[in-house]
Structure formats: structure tokens, C-alpha cells
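queue> pop job 88
queue> type: inverse folding (structure -> sequence)
queue> payload:
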């Protein structure tokens, strides 16, 4: 699969994620895909269980992609995942095999107040 095809697949995936289309969102995964959440220590195995775990999430969620970068079989998406109006800055690392995601690792970071020691050098991100 060429980079432009994978990029198009990722665009469709994140759009489906944002509108809550669970079937389209999970078309990207292999049947034996693995999803890791290192911060909670969870590993979910299989496309079906990945989809079921996300469908069971009770919060209202929105996805705002900030950047997608990658080539070949390794792609990274930076996005803001907002649960019930509360943002979490998120990085998704996807490894492709035969045109589908074989492994995904997601990292989440909650916002925090800027440190006063950096104030003279730091501006605000728009």
C-alpha cells in the first residue's frame, strides 16, 4: 500500500472516529490487531474487542486531528480527544501490515497550567 493510500485511510478513520461511526472507524484494523494503552497497562487483542471496548465508552467524544505523519508501515497521528468537553492531547502510533493496522499504541496527556519559570520564553499555542 502506498503512502498516499494509507494517509487517505487514516483520514477516513479519524473522520469516522469523530462522528461515532464505529464500523467505518474500525475498518482500518486487521482481525488480529493489538491496541496498547501504556499509561493504564491495558492491551486489547483483536479488531472485534477493540471496537467493542470503544463502543462501550459512555462519554461523548470528539476527535480533532492536529497532524498525521509517517511513511511505509509506521504512522503517527497527533490529535485532541475531547471526552465530555474535557480535552486530552493524544498520540496514536500505528503499525501497518498488508494495508491494515496490526498494532496501535495510544498515549494520552491531560492539559496543565504553564510553569511560571518558563513564562519569559513561552508563548501560547493557538
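queue> result:
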Amino acid at each position: 500500500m502506498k503512502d498516499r493510500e494509507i494517509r487517505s485511510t487514516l483520514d477516513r478513520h479519524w473522520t469516522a472516529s469523530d462522528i461515532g461511526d464505529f464500523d467505518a472507524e474500525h475498518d482500518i484494523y486487521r482481525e488480529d490487531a493489538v491496541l496498547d494503552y501504556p499509561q493504564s497497562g491495558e492491551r486489547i487483542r483483536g479488531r472485534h474487542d477493540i471496537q467493542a471496548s470503544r463502543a462501550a465508552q459512555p462519554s461523548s467524544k470528539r476527535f480533532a486531528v492536529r497532524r498525521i505523519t509517517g511513511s511505509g508501515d509506521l504512522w503517527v497521528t497527533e490529535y485532541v480527544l475531547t471526552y465530555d468537553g474535557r480535552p486530552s492531547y493524544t498520540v496514536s502510533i500505528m503499525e501497518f501490515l498488508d494495508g491494515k493496522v496490526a498494532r496501535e499504541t495510544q498515549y494520552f496527556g491531560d492539559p496543565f497550567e504553564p510553569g511560571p519559570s518558563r513564562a519569559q520564553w513561552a508563548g501560547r499555542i493557538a
